[in-house]
Amino acid sequence: MERLRAEYPQATCALVHESPLQLLVATILSAQCTDERVNMVTPVLFARYPTAVDLAEARLEDLEEVIRSTGFFRMKALAIREMSQDVVARFGGQVPRRMEDLVSLRGVGRKTANVVLGVAFGVPGLPVDTHVTRLSGLLRLTSAKDPVEIERDICAMVPAEEWTDLSLRLIMHGRRVCVARTPRCTQCVLGDICPSADLGPVRPGARTGGRHATARTARPRSPSGS
Fold first, then answer.
1. Which of 104, 120, 136 is the last residue of a domain?
2. Structural domain includes residue 9
3. Which of 20, 108, 118, 140 has fewest C-beta within 10 Å?
4. Tens digit of each residue's pLDDT (9 = 90 or more) over 51-63
5. What is the 3-class SS of the chain, one letter each residue?
């Protein structure tokens, strides 16, 4: 935590947003899509549909056309409209602030709820995305593969006030340094304490995580182990 905090002093969410609703929608759009692409789409989307009521009443075909470039656009358009209908009908058009309420919205899972809680409301939450899943396995913070179990294991060893920032920093580190196929171990601030450091590039199609040593081509180490 200390090393990642020093490396990434500002733990930030890459999704551009101005409200909890915008963050919720952007997070839904980010599934199987880059944040950069989402950030290109959302200004048009939010200009056309600024409130939950607008999104709830939108024609699916119109929503699909705006978000088409994010992939899986039909499923995402339906999820956004149904989520917005729930927000309007059950929460007066305001995104709720409790985990149990957020995950009760159609199209909203625990990861998305944790993003909204931690980033938009400042409520401790640890979103487990693909980067957090991968890095927590490489660092041997957990042997779990299920996101809920990973969240449970990491939250048990980290103070609640650190949950959101740690997740954001792991995501930033996974994008900039601990890249899935070409990890930059020599540039990593965790290199000397990471059990998976210096094992070489991931072979195409190889799995990372608990069996990481078999998924990479090991580089020879010096007799001293350095």
1. 120
2. no
3. 140
4. 999 999 999 999 9
5. CHHHHHHCCCCCCCCCCCCHHHHHHHHHHCCCCCHHHHHHHHHHHHHHCCCHHHHHCCCHHHHHHHHHHHCCHHHHHHHHHHHHHHHHHHHCCCCCCCHHHHCCCCCCCHHHHHHHHHHHCCCCCCCCCHHHHHHHHHCCCCCCCCHHHHHHHHHHHCCHHHHHHHHHHHHHHHHHCCCCCCCCHHHCCCCCCCCCCCCCCECCCCCCCCCHHHHECCCCCCCCCC
